[in-house]
Amino acid sequence: MTMPTPPTGVVPPVCTPLTPDREVDTSSLTRLVDHLVTGGVDALFVLGSTSEVAYLTDRQRTLVVDTVVRHVAGQLPVLAGAIDTTTPRVLDRARAVVESGADAVVVTAPFYTRTHPAEIARHFRLVARDCAVPVVAYDIPMAVHSKLPAELVLELAGDGVLAGLKDSSGDEGAFRRVVLGKRAEPGLAGFAVLTGSEVTVDSALAMGADGVVPGLGNVDPAGYVRLYRACRDGDWARARAEQERLCGLFGMVTVGDPGRMGGSSAALGAFKAALHLRGVIDCPATAEPQIPLSAAETERVGKHLATAGLL
Amino acid sequence: MTMPTPPTGVVPPVCTPLTPDREVDTSSLTRLVDHLVTGGVDALFVLGSTSEVAYLTDRQRTLVVDTVVRHVAGQLPVLAGAIDTTTPRVLDRARAVVESGADAVVVTAPFYTRTHPAEIARHFRLVARDCAVPVVAYDIPMAVHSKLPAELVLELAGDGVLAGLKDSSGDEGAFRRVVLGKRAEPGLAGFAVLTGSEVTVDSALAMGADGVVPGLGNVDPAGYVRLYRACRDGDWARARAEQERLCGLFGMVTVGDPGRMGGSSAALGAFKAALHLRGVIDCPATAEPQIPLSAAETERVGKHLATAGLL
Amino acid sequence: MTMPTPPTGVVPPVCTPLTPDREVDTSSLTRLVDHLVTGGVDALFVLGSTSEVAYLTDRQRTLVVDTVVRHVAGQLPVLAGAIDTTTPRVLDRARAVVESGADAVVVTAPFYTRTHPAEIARHFRLVARDCAVPVVAYDIPMAVHSKLPAELVLELAGDGVLAGLKDSSGDEGAFRRVVLGKRAEPGLAGFAVLTGSEVTVDSALAMGADGVVPGLGNVDPAGYVRLYRACRDGDWARARAEQERLCGLFGMVTVGDPGRMGGSSAALGAFKAALHLRGVIDCPATAEPQIPLSAAETERVGKHLATAGLL
Amino acid sequence: MTMPTPPTGVVPPVCTPLTPDREVDTSSLTRLVDHLVTGGVDALFVLGSTSEVAYLTDRQRTLVVDTVVRHVAGQLPVLAGAIDTTTPRVLDRARAVVESGADAVVVTAPFYTRTHPAEIARHFRLVARDCAVPVVAYDIPMAVHSKLPAELVLELAGDGVLAGLKDSSGDEGAFRRVVLGKRAEPGLAGFAVLTGSEVTVDSALAMGADGVVPGLGNVDPAGYVRLYRACRDGDWARARAEQERLCGLFGMVTVGDPGRMGGSSAALGAFKAALHLRGVIDCPATAEPQIPLSAAETERVGKHLATAGLL
């Protein structure tokens, strides 16, 4: 089996624009894809947490992948989440996105159940065995309540089970173990190590990461592309300046009142409000049962955009 | 809208027998249903955690509900889980089980996402609004990583959103707040408060609970029915003796080596091994990626059965 | 070594009254002791979580034990917490309370450090080896962030390391495993299994527990004594009625605004406000950095007292 | 009040060498201090987690600070932990270390109790009000089970309550918010932001951190000093090479079998084994109830030293 290299560089997790009655707004979605492609990104990741995958029905999920794959028409690789609780359900979701034309699937550890490292390993092995495209592991303890151990990731990479890692754990020490473990093993040259952080991209790339999957990249793809290129050029001062501008912009995820809404509502609400304010999407609605930003909160998102030079 | 009273009494969460290649074994499933009905249970709960709902594909889930509803043919009410991450997905699952003939749906708080009590309330309100049958809340923090506050449960019950509660939190103090809150409010007389515990059923019924949803009830339905009746008769000494026998039997969930497998593998593996040893189902397999019990572990399940007088 | 049986029955964890400038108010403390003794309790537990042990300096801790031991003058046994992070520090605290005359020490698992079941076992073994009085294990995961496994408690009891268990875990299923494990082993007849719950005392005693350590017992010792006696008499209807009255009274711990203060401030603040309103202590102050109840919150404590017939 | 700037640069948390019977080995301790000073470190931090502060009695704690302060004799600043559960106890510990001559105290959020952000703020304000030397906040969620919010740290810094932050949270995104928040506020120029990470020091310094408090710095102080200087010189390639060598060395904390011991035993056991193998301290014993490394595990520590060029 030849394992095609998964995408590297800037790979934004694409937001899913919704209509006011919570249907997928495909014309806003294709405008968003154009906005990202124009921004210079290297690949797209649909049906991740930032895409509100946990809130989309199966029909809507398929509509999203179909729409994006058809629209990019091979210009860029499209990764798609196959996010579900356990192996048989993930395989069903993986088949669906592969049928829609996804180039790779992104898969988490089992959730909802009480799991174990041995079961997590078995899960990825079984998914990869039966999946027609490369599998990227999605390490997101905030959602699945277990952390993928660095050693397990490297073992599965070495066995050809995993083609990449998207690390949204926020644990930069463990991330670095994967980066260094990859470098120590020539056979892992094609394994893609991607950070899901918005605010430590320069650090991650300086360590040797292959790319970044920033939710905030929906709002400012060109900024992340500049950041990525500065890092690749070894111009760390320029990278740091760009990263710090993006850190300021990322402050938008804190405008939602934590006494009134959860973290997903606040972060996804801010990204969508920003895309709406920038004229990319028609409606900033997030899926149910998320709580919408207030008018005052939305105004503060606008101030973040203005400060970052985006309005 | 008249809200039909949900079932009370002994309501086992029905295991899903699988074939060696992990397909639903419908003939074992109907034999298991007969075993439960013969045991005297009051209703059945399919597609809960004990049913391995998190491991069944949508097709398998529908096959399970169809099979059970057709087989019980109205002799007993059938509750069905509509277990998924958020409102739109839960509504899809609820429609499916209602179409298959479920008499009520059982729904958890959102999971995978970072949620908030206000979003949990909104979730249940939206599900109940669009669902054709009564909604029972499923409080299972171990799986969804948030606890349903007693006050929220009572508020939603008072508003006609919830028809019942299945409490698998293990927090007997909070459970009692719901029981006492219900009693204080005449309008909540029809609200069913059910414990998901196997080992504190006598306590829960003494407090005033309406019923019990014991996973171990698959293995010994008659035992739980005797326990329930002893409690209803106010014969607490008899209830305690029966409960203590069942506590001993429940020790089977600890035979699986925790160094080698997770808690779901151990508990569901033990229940299925016991059903296989008792001749109720053809194969003890659990779904992927769970780790099977070893031969020695299965033998220890047999000893638990023998001690409890079930072999 | 003969292991003296630790106290059973009603063993309130004694609040530590403070002056407005946060010094131990010894005259209020002895009045509180009189209030408890008059209420009919079987023993006293000082320097537990309800005593604000985590907020008292070593000097204040010693003053508390000295004051209480001298005042009860052998009428009742006095247990004392030796609450600190690890073995050497716990031993220092144990020596101090033994010197003050405590009849037994109460000890948690290690905290602050990243511990392990093998280290927890070693901790209790070393403490018991070097401690002149019986050791009672204090299972309080909310504080120490690990749970004492039932099997470990029974093993340590069997080896004469532990003389009793105070279970504040809220996990009634695990508590029952200890109760049943004790009963199965004749050598454990003297091992005291105590629940720390205020609201499931009838359940715990019906299961076979030996006693109860209720923080709310400061406010209404006579109520817990009546409850205990009703259980010992096997009059479960009377027990349940008394317990339900106490459950209503326990509602006082929710009057403190959780947006403004933590759970310790709310619970200890309510107990002290109630003791102050009942005229038992001079000042309701809690130790720094706890947040005081507002006047309106204190008024609601008073309503709980009135409803329970205590004002 | 003028708030003296706390130390920056490389500030190792000094291990506490013990004799085989677990007494403080003061001659090994002074040798260790010489080893660190010779290595070129900028200051010393005693009585932190790496010093086994949670395992030392009050007498031993005082002996440690006295010994180190007397031995360094003003050559370097000495920070000391005042690690205890709440405000009154922390103040007692702070007074003790100030009396011994510590130049600053390091203080965590309250632990063991159920706390709240408002109580955490009040705690630091009260400690700083009554403490004669500058207060550095110690953010260590792994130990205290709450995270210091970046905004709270900045607010307390702005009010002159905190002189610095030692961040052992592993959350580099939140760390960066503090670094950037400090830079945005000219009044905070003297506030020292220190990372407690061993493996992302180059990243933290590139972001703008003021220093590092690496436990592994006991083993290889010269390595961390070279790393710090390379960063200060802006020689990121040299910094990265040094950091990666130290990442390899840090692998020693994983030699202890996690099935047999907790994370503190494994990490502190490895550091002490390495110091013993390097001839700096006489005995590698860790305090009770930690589990010692086996001979085979110690041998693997030696291999890590050899690979890093330290044996």
From TrEMBL, chains A, B, C, D:
Its EC number is 4.1.3.3, 4.2.1.41, 4.3.3.7. Gene3D superfamilies: Aldolase class I (3.20.20.70). SUPFAM superfamilies: Aldolase. CDD domains: DHDPS-like. Keywords: Lyase, Schiff base. GO terms for molecular function: 4-hydroxy-tetrahydrodipicolinate synthase activity; 5-dehydro-4-deoxyglucarate dehydratase activity; N-acetylneuraminate lyase activity. The keyword Transmembrane does not apply. Belongs to the DapA family. This is Dihydrodipicolinate synthase family protein. It comes from Streptomyces atriruber. The lineage of its organism: Bacteria, Bacillati, Actinomycetota, Actinomycetes, Kitasatosporales.
